[in-house]
Amino acid sequence: MSRFDFSHPPFDTLTPGEQQTLEKHADIQFFAEEECLLGPSDRVDALYVVLKGSMREMAGDEVITLYRERDTFDARAMVAGQTPHRFVVHEEALLYTLPRDVVMALTEQNPRFGAYFYASVSEKFGSMAQRAGNRELQTLLTATVRDVGSRTPVFVDGSTSVRDAARVMKDNKVKSVLVRHDGRLGIFTTTDFRDIVLNEVPGSTPLAALCRFELLTVDVGDFLFNALLIMTRRNIRRLVVTDNGQAIGILSQVDILSYFSNHSHLIAQRLDRADTLDELAEIAAQITRLVQILFSHGVKAPQLGRLVQTLNARLFSRTWQLLAPAELQDNSCLLVMGSEGRGEQILKTDQDNALILRNGFNHPELPAICEAFSAALARFGYPPCQGQIMVNNAAWRLTESQLQQQIHQWVYQPDGAALMNLAIYVDAEAVAGDASLLERSHAYLLQQLRDDASFFSRFARAIEQFDTPLGLFSHLLTKERNGKAMLDLKKGGIFPLVHGVRSLSLEHGISQCNTFDRLHALAEAGHLDKELASEIAESLSFLLTLKLSQGLQQLSLGKQPGNQIEPDQLSTLERDLLKDALGVVKKFRTQLRHHFRLGSF
């Protein structure tokens, strides 16, 4: 049995022969507490893996990184041949030492292994996503009939004629009906009409004489794969879905194949044809399930954010259509804002929405309708906004003229609350109603901001609210290991990047809302260095994905997703990427301070 653990990155990419080569040359060394293993400019002739104890990487007196069991260090120093930092034993340590020449030879032989030492942040993260994709088959095999959902069945009496049944199927846009007759339940499908035509069966014939009463069923809790297996074996296209023996739906072969090949398309179709809030609540739960499936396939957070934004927009729009009368829909514009507007809110967090009304229009039931809308979203799993930035708050239900007055106040009386509200509004996207109301309001905002450098400086200054915690690893130095250092990903990394890009975009009149689109537009227009824009995009993608990963873990434990993570629980590769990402945040903040002259305020 191997004494070396090859199950974690980057060693999990080695072939059996390469593993033998590495293990043959690996040595185990003991280092006492506070012993200095490497110092600035020391020659680095090995790669180290912590077997027991802990090490800290120091830049002067600042702790840069803490390494614990199974952590690897320092790949960059090994490649460069020397290090600018000190590596000091924090707790008595047993280390594997892997000779530099052996490791470097393996990097040349094995590109995937070598990528760990030379790849950029985005390439390293792509490698992580590829590993996650290997779980795809397992995830799909555990999906249930409940996950895909089923079409509500249409019931008819056995005495119904064939002609009347055809009319019912046409009116309800279904390809089958369930037939109740003498305590039995049968099924009649469009395929049965083929035999009726061929056999010249009269249209007045009752369905009880033609339908099949030996139903093939599947329980709502059964595995979806089993349903597909039944259809394949019996050469049929649909099954009756039961719950406690009662028929509750019809599952077609198309539904199953759509789920496996394009689950999001199936959800979108169900949203469009949903007629009740109960149906929408069920579909809303499927969006989170979709995120779990696609994330396990290796889909990155930015792409998931765009997909969820599209589905949420349809969910919110359909909800509004069910609650608001036609005249209100025609004379208003429903907005989502903040991370939802940017397409960067993947899991259900707080609501951020508003309503713009056409000048002169009012509806007597408007407060009640908006209250019902906010309550519906809460029921769907979107918690109320703590700041009450929702349509059920009259402050966020404004006519077009009132909104322009509000924008003018935000710009010319920019206290903290005003700037926060403006930042949320800048990310607004229309999801229902007349989008031109939002377009005109945005145009008005840009008119108010022309050549006002002092305003942009005040607006951008929010990036200084929270520090970028590059020294967070110093908080992990509890030798008793009974304390937990937490990192707020949003405050420490995501917000400075998002708001910094938002500030530059507002200054230069960039119309896009999504941060990645804004980065591309800024770089193409020459307002942001392309290499820095790429680094920001890579770092934000990683931070959002890390936040999503932690959020899904919290959901699996029955907890509400949040922004805090425990760095001590991250893998070596994740901590390495986190350090890189926070370094980019710090670099970007430095540039923003200079660009907006934040030191003058």
TrEMBL record:
Position of the signal peptide: none
Pfam families: CBS (PF00571), DUF294 (PF03445), DUF294_C (PF10335)
Domain Cyclic nucleotide-binding, chain residue ranges per copy: 10-89
MF term (GO), any: [protein-PII] uridylyltransferase activity
Keywords noted in UniProt: CBS domain
Lipoprotein recorded as keyword: no
Organism: Aquitalea magnusonii
Protein name: Predicted signal-transduction protein containing cAMP-binding and CBS domain
Domain (CBS): residue spans on this chain: 210-267
Annotated InterPro entries: CBS_dom, CBS_dom_sf, cNMP-bd_dom, cNMP-bd_dom_sf, Diverse_CBS-Domain, DUF294_put_nucleoTrafse_sb-bd, GlnD_Uridyltrans_N, RmlC-like_jellyroll
